[in-house]
């Protein structure tokens, strides 16, 4: 692929690396910095100096800014700030913050409690405004006729470039603007919002068409995820009557359309606007399914057009719905395509095999021997690649984490992190996510602050690293009793390292509530099965509980509501409370849920029906309310209840859901609860029985099988036996993700044999699709699977193999199981193995690299020069293969 492009990037990165390294040193200011500091203290015009040193400004250090004069004249100050503003993005975090503190220090704080930030200072600060603590911004926004408003009226330049704006800051600005009666629902004001638009607090009903269109236009400039803005914006749109050009005009906003809206789109509108939809990346899996269903896109393109044509026309989001079989027919698959698509592993295998014809297995990419052999003089590029590489592709237990870290330590010549400079910390980028307890322990407090930006993006910390990081954070930010919401805002998901009783010690306030809300809104649970070893989603349980508690307490403090007779003594939750709580509604008690009014329930069932954290007793309370709100529920009503339906008894199913249609089943089938416990499974069986009364198993099409989701796990082996093998094979990759009980998996496996032949003949690609069904193979069937194919069993499947069967795998089979499958092996499965087999299994934990002792010849050195590229590509590809 673009090797030359990477080399260009290589030299550019090395150049900037050298630039940044040059400013690192024991002294506070380097030579040119010292000269700058001197000039700032004097009165002569600074312009000639600035023009002679433009290229050096990006390396301005924090330590030197701290020495800047308190008596700088206004003209010079404005000139310097104008130049610094241009390089804001490349300054390091410490320097940015220091510049803000310097400006703050130049301005005496008014004794009357108002902000020192006047319109003039706001203009001077420009992008450095975002370095202000949230509390200072609030002081500014809370003022009577805040300078914020006059500034907003006078300029729209600033807001356009606030790329690093965070939700809590945006919220403060919006509150300030509202306070001085600037109506941000007006198109003329929306036009001025710039990056503020990306965090727009939409109340869609209040927006006129012109305002909405203006906002949609601005949202195109956002770098972050604006899907939830889109969702709110498109909520009230009647898309049913949309033609293709109207749908096309929605652009990225289409990713905000709800399931019902997508399902109501006309086939012509979707097909006609594919070229626009093809640029949208934000669709979720369920949205894709709804879209496919609405448009019959799968039918039209995947049945009638060639794979190549489909690839060139279909949106990337929909291409990933292509079956591996179809993909295999495609003649040309560019490597460019390879990097773009959110392929699942089976698809990635096909694409990789096509793009790299000499590639046999993903294991080929798993050696870092070459990287270790790269001479350190050539390693800056590798560091820059790793700094950007997605660390999540390496399992937490992978030995390669240590190898990469050791390599980088050698390359950057540090054997202990207490020697790191702030610049080096920034240089490390994602490598910080691979730090172990020893590296974290030795970081200086100021380097931790420098690293926090990066660390909060690492995802999850566990065990010793978590303990070290907690200690280091307390060292740096003080005991949590002293934290303000500003501290929490700075830590973001790192605050989740502290448990609920700790977080509850923070003083509860509206500000803390808003801060937690914005943190939680940015954490997305992964879809589907993710083995613990590669699950990097931060565990925000403690933040969620604290948030729920604060919301409920604040709410009930101010509300004096009428109490229904049967619910005396209970403060009844309202629609607004539930909207605010969102998925934290799980913090409501059984009594509170049971006392919801019919109207509140109907208005919030969308939220309540989709909360996976509700235990059965709360679901049961909600079911009781549901049956009051809908005394004779229709299929649509049931579909709307979603997960609440798992609380129905089998008898209630017969009373209220006697004639289910496939759409209602599709809405409730995605919950794994259906196959989790005996009572719920009995309810599921009743639902399936009622459905099959009018739709026999043998009439079900692949899309029906797909829609059934976990309800398919409630089929009897006989009912599964009657399903058409051809229809099964078209839905195989979705069915292969279900974790059904073993008897059902066995029946489904027999269907797979009918469709694809004997297990010994399954191709690696088919094995990816067959997925969990593989877990139902007998010992005899497993013995016929060649060892080379073992790493293609999916991790979900591995986790489901009964220990009694698992222990019969051969030593070679275990040895070839693969790193990610090792992560999925349960402790019972491990315990079933004898010592030899246990050792064979452990070989998957990552090859240990033997250091190369032979001196590098020039030939091998030049070979090694190319290996960073190989490593970078390997990293990217392994990521693709692992990420789904
Ligand atoms: C500027 O003033 C602050 C306090 O007002 C003081 O801490 C700092 O040392 C002063 N800086 C210089 C360079 O004099
Ligand atoms: C607060 O004091 C500053 C000067 O110190 C003055 O400009 C401002 O008008 C005062 N604000 C109020 C609300 O009194
Ligand atoms: C800003 O402009 C609006 C009109 O859009 C005006 O009503 C308001 O008074 C102005 N505010 C300030 C502080 O200039
Ligand atoms: C789509 O509908 C809009 C509004 O009804 C109309 O102005 C436009 O001409 C239609 N476009 C097409 C291609 O039918
Ligand atoms: C690798 O290092 C050698 C000498 O140390 C140097 O001559 C060569 O240009 C470097 N190669 C790259 C790609 O940086
Ligand atoms: C780190 O390197 C220094 C010299 O560069 C050496 O004296 C020291 O022992 C090393 N420390 C460790 C832990 O390897
Ligand atoms: C929270 O963490 C602290 C400190 O590790 C510990 O003492 C306390 O028991 C924990 N509380 C809970 C409820 O887990
Ligand atoms: C809910 O509606 C039902 C009738 O559909 C009614 O009997 C019941 O009293 C209502 N419950 C509440 C709390 O309003
Ligand atoms: C199920 O049967 C009903 C009644 O015969 C029919 O209208 C419906 O289309 C069938 N649904 C499926 C998914 O086959």
UniProtKB/TrEMBL annotation:
One Gene Ontology CC term in the entry: cell surface
Top-level taxon of origin: Eukaryota
Keyword Signal: yes
Signal peptide: 1-24
UniProt keyword annotations, A-Z: Glycoprotein, Signal
Presence of the UniProt keyword Glycoprotein in the record: yes
Gene Ontology terms: biological process: cell-matrix adhesion
Protein's name according to its UniProt entry: Otoancorin
High-level lineage: Eukaryota, Metazoa, Chordata, Craniata, Vertebrata
